[in-house]
Amino acid sequence: MSISKIISGSALLVIIFLSVSLLTSCGSPGVMDSREASYDYAEESLVPAPAADMAAGSPEYGFTEVERVDEVVGDSALRHVIRNGSIDLTVRNTRETIKTIQQMVSAADGIISYSYVYEIREGVYGANLTIRVPQERFDSMMAQLEPLGKAANIQTSQDDVTMQYVDLESRLNNQKAQEARLVEILEMANNVEEVLEVERELYRVRGEIESMSAQFRHLRDRVNYSTIELRMKEEVIPTQTISPGAFENFGEKLLQSFIGGVNFVLRAVSAVAVALSALLPVLILFGVIGYLIFIITRRVSRKKKAAAAEKKGSTAS
User: Helix 192-224 vs helix 162-187: angle between axes, to the nearest 10 degrees?
Assistant: First the structure.
């Protein structure tokens, strides 16, 4: 084969290749557009209605706007924190200090949820208190409690429960939305079988709502009201020193003792009077019988004396 034929064949192949490439590039936009249009149409037609409802957040499938909004808590969102504290106090008078604390807690819109006063030894008392105050007044309450005595073992803690709080609230809202949807479905039920099936599901959902509501109320209460555990005991005076405690409220103690003695005497007199009034009929009966015996005995005695005198006179004559 000559060189000229080889060159002619190669040139022909190059021309054919260029022609095919040109035709392909010219027709490709239309082909791609038709493919894309057909794919979009097919994709749109293949999406079932329930899936579309789920994507749109239909209450029928348990998806609500609340879940999407509250699912993520940002740094700027409201934080839900449980705050606790504890203090050990050594005070001079436990009962008086408790009265002061009650006034302080009442002024702070709080409550004393637990109170236990006990006697350490004769005349020395201690107490354990559980104080609940609004979270925004936790720090001020801790600051007010410390100066009431010698404070020790002061502890505070914070537990961030934001995610737990938001998650529980979101799930509770979803269950309520599902309950509302089930009620609507129940109204549209056509036969007894459908009614029973929807009622079973409704019963289950309502049980979960009650359980979640109790959990949520408990969690919200712990967040809104902080807890302070207060342990108190009275200061013990060393035995080497003279304690004025024995003469504390001495006049009041004397007055109480005197009043107690008078009351005892009055109660005794009253008891004796009541007893005598109950025995009065018997005493009257015994008195009458005794009086009759006395009269009979005296008459018998006089007769004996008269008989003896007469006998003596007749003997003398």
Answer: 160
CA distance 237 to 15: 118
CA distance 283 to 281: 5
Q: Is 12 helix (H, G, I), strand (E, B) or coil?
A: helix
DSSP, collapsed to helix, strand or coil, labels residue 124 as strand
Q: How many CB atoms lie within 10 A of CB 219?
A: 17
pLDDT tens digits, residue range 135-144?
999 999 999 9
Contact 177, 113 (CB under 8 A): no
Residue with tokens 């879940």: 67
pLDDT at position 143: 93
Cβ atoms < 10 Å from Cβ of 110: 19
Residue that the structure tokens 């009759």 belong to: 292
Partnered with residue 124 across adjacent β-strands are: 121
**pLDDT tens-digit series, residues 172-214:** 999 999 999 999 988 888 888 888 989 999 999 999 999 999 9
Cα–Cα distance between 135 and 266 in angstroms, integer? 56
- The 10 Å Cβ neighbour count of residue 83 is 19
206, 212, 210, 226: which is closest to 164 by C-alpha? 212
pTM: 0.48
Amino acid at 177: A
Nearest CA-CA partner of 125 in 153, 151, 90, 86: 90
Strand partners, 211: none
